[in-house]
Design a protein that fits this description.
It comes from Streptomyces albospinus. Keywords: Ligase. This is ATP-dependent DNA ligase. One of its GO terms (molecular function) is ligase activity. The protein is globular, with a radius of gyration of 19 Å. The strands form five sheets. Strands 13-14-10-12-11-16 form a six-stranded mixed sheet. The protein starts with a strand and ends with a helix. Strand 1 and strand 2 form a beta hairpin. The protein contains eight helices and 16 strands. About 25% of the residues lie in helices and about 25% in strands. It is of the alpha+beta class and about 300 residues long.
Length: about 300
């Protein structure tokens, strides 16, 4: 019989808590749930009002994995959802993780959490701009850091502040708070910078997804700014061989990175990092930090 727990007045049935989710480290589902609850304050802050997509891996990273945007069957009636329109298909009803009870329910499904760069009250209107820096072997996150520094400085010239986090996989994410802007504008701006980076750093980066171009270089993926795309959220566990986390990092850490292991963080390290640094992505939650995207009316005023 599955144990029943009460979270914020909601009764939840938690299943298979002793099941090993990450065989390489012996990490159990119960430990995954514990991580999510002890990190709930920042997870909830970065998920707030953003329709969530789930990458589910209930049998561990080596088992079946499936990506879903629609609220899964059996979603409790008290879980808040958002109807998300799509230009080429029917709308999807997606989960909003607004409280601890919903986070625990979702964690019990064993999921990576992904979200768009906009909130449910303004679909397709971005308040963040993102670059996903993906290294092609033998390049690593070390090369991603070099590309990230160039992008940070280039955006600073446009009055934008960039914040960094590991992808929790091989690469690095840069996130920029912007004043609400149609996603097609953030996508166009991000593409322009990716092309500029390719011109400035031809031996380091590529801006096209073509696999033949990518070995030994960093692919600057600007496409995740499109309204229909999502990015792994800060602090989510990833479906990797070990329980790695998409972890906020300092620019000093980015500058000092000479070994991929320096920017590989597992879930048991996050509490200590938060104690030392706080939430390094906290500025993303402050509307006062948002800046107009170049080319918008206010930026040109």
């Amino acid at each position: 019989m599955s144990p029943i727990t009460v979270v914020e007045g909601r009764r939840l049935s938690l299943t298979n808590l002793d099941k090993v989710i990450y065989p390489e480290t012996g990490t159990t589902k119960g430990e995954v749930l514990h991580y999510c609850t002890t990190t709930a304050d920042v997870l909830l802050a970065h998920l707030h009002d953003r329709p969530v997509s789930f990458l589910r891996f209930p049998d561990g990273p080596g088992g079946q994995r499936f990506f879903t945007k629609n609220a899964p069957p059996g979603t409790p009636s008290w879980v808040k959802t958002c109807l998300v329109p799509h230009s080429r298909s029917a709308p999807t009803r997606q989960v909003l993780i607004q409280d601890l009870a919903t986070l625990v329910w979702a964690a019990n499904l064993v999921v990576e959490l992904h979200a768009p760069q906009w909130t449910c009250d303004a679909p397709g209107v971005a308040d963040r701009l993102v670059f996903d820096l993906d290294p092609g072997a033998p390049a690593t996150v070390v090369e991603c850091c070099a590309a990230a520094r160039w992008l940070r400085d280039r955006m600073a010239a446009d009055g934008l502040d960039a914040y960094a986090k590991t992808s929790g996989s091989k690469g690095l994410h840069l996130i920029v708070p912007v004043e609400p802007t149609p996603a097609e504008h953030t996508t166009a701006y991000a593409r322009t910078l990716a092309v500029e980076a390719r011109t400035a750093l031809p031996d380091l980066v590529v801006h096209k997804m073509t696999k033949a171009l990518r070995p030994g270089k960093v692919f600057i993926d600007f496409s995740q700014n499109a309204a229909a795309k999502t990015t792994a959220v800060a602090y989510t566990l990833r479906a990797r061989a070990t329980p790695t986390v998409s972890t906020p990092v300092t620019w000093d850490e980015v500058a000092a990175c000479t070994d991929p292991n320096q920017l590989a963080f597992r879930f048991e390290e996050i509490a200590d990092r938060r104690e030392r640094h706080g939430d390094l992505l906290g500025p993303l939650l402050d509307p006062g930090r948002a800046r107009p995207l170049p080319g918008t009316a206010r930026h040109l005023a």
